[in-house]
Amino acid sequence: MSKLHDLHKLGQSTWLNYMRHNYIMSGEFRQAIDNGIQGVTANAAVFAQTIVQHDDYDEDINRLMLEGIPYRHIHEWLMMDDGRLAADLLHKVYEATDGWDGYVSLEIDPSLAESATKTAATAKHTLYGMDRVNAMVEIPATLEGCDAIRTLAGDCESLNITHVFTITDFERAAQAYIAGLELLLASDCMWRVMPTAVASFSVGAIDAAIDPVLRAKDAPELCGKTGIALAKLLYQRYRQIFFGPRWEQLARHKARPMRPKWTRITPSDPGLPLTHYTNALIGQDTVITFTPDTLAAFQKSGKIAPTLTLDIGGAEDHLDRLAKVGVNLDEIVHQLQAEHLSMAQAQYQALIDAVMQRSVVLGMAA
């Protein structure tokens, strides 16, 4: 039994933000599942780095080139192939948790985020290509993304809602998800399977943006606390949204709530321990997304206690103190979504470029 299993007993799911071919094929990912990992999210940056620096995908890139697959589509094939392998390994978790966990989450081209129609269509294409019941796709919590969320939830598709930086982002996505479930239940679909959804709240990214402002305003004592405070208040809102007559009507049909998923949990401040966010955000019906480094640190020195619902008054007080020292929290966190969407688009393009560059190297070596 590992500390991850202790988190499971407290109702928290434990996923990993790391997927590459050799990690899956070597047996390391299977061992991580045995140690308590219950899901995995693919990362375009990790794929790009692996393609440039390692030979995990050389054979497949070379074969797909010879088959005439366009450069822009090779990375999709690679990600879906790894996704299917990981999904098969996680299927036992999916079955053991009755579809609550055991998912592989794949990213789609974030440049489509401004079009609900293109986002939904690409998500459907990706899930069709995966052909696994325990696959989900990432949909950004933009206005257009929420339209896609409603459509996809109405089509029984499981979703990972990304780029959530505010409680408003979460609530808007949650309402779209609920509306989609209501459409699903109102349909005549004979093969209805209730989907699941998680909402990825970027905890550490918030402090990375807020803390430099706090230091400039001579308030360093407030650093490293804003992400946790917002996460605690978001969790309170989650419990309000997925409660009451409207939700109970859906729950009677085995609908699953859109759980908060804590991501970007590596502190930007090197003075903070790698367990800083993990230890503070342990709570029922949530997901914690580890990187390999934060997972190792938590296994070594993480503390097991239900901390997410503690000191809600302190979280509210922290936000009040930010306002008193002149920090415009709303302005900063709303800007983060646009900045991180732009960053995600750049990372995704870097993945496409990495395939092209590697194909040139392989062609020269042939």
Protein model, in words:
The protein is of the alpha/beta class. The protein has one domain: TIM Barrel (Alpha-Beta Barrel), CATH 3.20.20. The chain is 58% helix and 11% strand. It is built from 16 helices and 8 strands. The chain has helices spanning 3-9, 21-25, 28-34, 44-53, 58-66, 71-96, 116-130, 143-154, 167-186, 203-216, 226-241, 245-251, 276-280, 292-301, 312-324, 329-365, and strands at 12-16, 39-41, 103-106, 135-140, 159-164, 197-202, 258-263, 286-290. Helix 13 links the parallel strand 7 (258-263) and strand 8 (286-290). Helix 7 (116-130) crosses helix 8, helix 9 runs parallel beside helix 11 (226-241) and helix 11 crosses helix 15. It starts with a helix and ends with a helix. The mean pLDDT is 94.
What's the helix and strand layout?
Blueprint: H1 3-9, E1 12-16, H2 21-25, H3 28-34, E2 39-41, H4 44-53, H5 58-66, H6 71-96, E3 103-106, H7 116-130, E4 135-140, H8 143-154, E5 159-164, H9 167-186, E6 197-202, H10 203-216, H11 226-241, H12 245-251, E7 258-263, H13 276-280, E8 286-290, H14 292-301, H15 312-324, H16 329-365
Parallel strand pairs: 1-2, 1-8, 2-3, 3-4, 4-5, 5-6, 6-7, 7-8
